[in-house]
Predict the structure.
Amino acid sequence: MHEVTLIVNGVPRQARVPARRLLSDFLRHDLGLTGTHVGCEHGVCGACTVLLDGQPVRACLTFAVSVTGQEVTTVEGLAKDGELSPVQRAFAECHGLQCGFCTPGFLTTVTAFLRENPAPADDEAIEAVAGNLCRCTGYQNIVKSVHRAAELMAEEGP
Amino acid sequence: MAEAVEALAAAGADGKVLAGGQSLIPLMNMRLAAPGQLVDINHVAGLGEITAEAGGVRVGALARHAEVEASETAFAAQPLVRRALRLVAHPAVRNRGTTVGSIVHADPAAEMPAVLALLGGSVRARGPEGERDIPAAEFFTGPMESSLRTGELAVSAFFPAAEGGTAIVEVARRHGDYAMAGVAALVGPDHARVACLSVGAVPVVVDVTEAEGDWARAARIVRERIEPEADIHATADYRRHLTGVLAERALKEAADA
């Protein structure tokens, strides 16, 4: 068993877990943060995407023990003071989700993407979400949500 | 690093190195791999460096694909490295996966083994008996098999600058998927060769210097030399045809680069 400490959404969290514990399971089972969803468990679907030191990674392809001491942002950490983040609001406004299973992965991926590219062209927005699968929406409204989130962020400033 | 090499040697055939885990962990999640012991090198100091060396660039075992892709040092030494990395999976996987890990994984459908083979690069391995450089031509021995010995840790890979222009093209069913076929090409003043993905047990390097700039002829040479297999995505004939088309395209692009 290993002592793993992570800064999750700004709060230090600790648990004793086996070396084999995936970051996705660590978040869900050991910390009770079930917002991070587990879809394919082999890195294809993107539902489990979280931000590790600000960069999107697959939580299902990372062992918790490997990232001890690092910062993780999950979908629970996107809203600030009870208010949804611009990316979350854009997805709600543009119907960028239906069943919502894939949504946490899209939200974290798009949050990191817009930080690097605040005004993406259409093909850039499409490529940004190419690593996340959604079986409901057909992606059109997700791409719209990316653009809308960029607008909201530009209006509201940092 | 000494501790990692020691742990790996102690684990013997039961041991496996964990770096980015973007190939190993899916295999473990699907129960296709069940190593008895993992030697996690993620906290080993000094393995993440990307350094310019005489005639090329050296990439450390912990340099993530995304870091190598963004590295101006690597791009200046050999622009093919960045171009090929943009075809490797998706950004979220490249943020964690390592370039050396992808080479050691030795998947014949992967881009970076083909790039290393095309350029005639090498892998530096450290084991209980010391360090050695393994040329790419001797490194890849089969699908997911390399000539690394039990207890050896790949500490870096060297990508030569290589004289001439380079290019890489591929066709995948979906963006970010493994390619059905792909070709990396190098064209210099007196040499031309390609490395083909997904058409053999290892990256297949074909010298097409004799085509003398007739890239359609080069494509025919490539088609004769490869032995693709069929799978659910493509028949062997289709892969052979596609590889020829891509070889012609990549060679043209490399010649103009």
Remarks:
- Residues 165-256 of chain B form a domain with the Enolase-like; domain 1 fold (CATH 3.30.390.50).
- Chain B touches chain A through 20 residues (CB under 8 Å).
